[in-house]
What we know:
Blueprint: E1 8-13, E2 31-32, E3 35-36, H1 37-46, E4 51-58, E5 76-80, H2 85-98, E6 106-109, H3 119-129, E7 135-141, E8 148-149, E9 155-157, E10 165-174, H4 175-187, H5 195-201, E11 207-210
Parallel strand pairs: 1-4, 1-6, 4-5, 7-11
Antiparallel strand pairs: 2-3, 6-10, 7-10, 8-9
Amino acid sequence: MTDTTPPFWVVIPAAGVGSRMQADRPKQYLKLGQRSLIEHTLDCFLDQPGLLGLVVCLSPEDGWWSQLPCAVDPRITRTDGGRERADSVLNGLHRLAELGAAADDWVLVHDAARPNLAESDLLKLLAQLQDDPVGGLLAVPVRDTLKLADADGRVSSTPDRSLYWQAYTPQMFRLGALRSALGDALAAGAVITDESSAMEWAGHRPRLVEGRADNIKITRPEDLRP
Ligand code: CTP
Ligand code: MG
């Protein structure tokens, strides 16, 4: 299957402070077994022969990254993150262009805080989207019944669950289109929480690729408890 996947670049936003995790360091540097969370996250991409290069977006004050063995991996470039996740990703995309990435090249954006991406999901995303005109994202159909809340914290309705998906990462788009969409959406003051929402804002309809539910984003302390 690897032979049929396209070459790709990767941007890893990792400039967050992890406030909800309430730890003594940004959550991407918490240990998962012997190694930090971000090292597990990077593994899945570094194992792929199609990887063209990878940019990690970090806080300028980050003193943790340089202590990791992967900090000297020649395929990885460090760049500054920004105020919000979308600002960090946009910086990463600019850096990719400086590294020689072309407007038509595929870019995968993946949260540093998702260390459990399965190789089968990564290969599925690449294979299903390689000929797509827009691109798309890994996502999971919602499992629980959804409730719409009113201002008093009471249920106002129960929406049709079959129409709703949870957006995961990686999200896969072409560099030029994603850079324009994110730049324009941020300049217009739109609220952008993932790459797909920037592409939607620009009028595109990203494809949903069903992924595994265990590709979770480590967010709260209970997410790391055994
Ligand atoms: N991120 C980033 N730049 C920011 C904010 C977040 O690169 N300005 C990254 C985080 O490091 C993380 C990913 O975006 O890998 C998803 O964000 P989130 O889970 O919200 O992480 P944090 O912002 O670190 O956590 P919190 O919101 O609890 O502070
Ligand atoms: Mg955050």
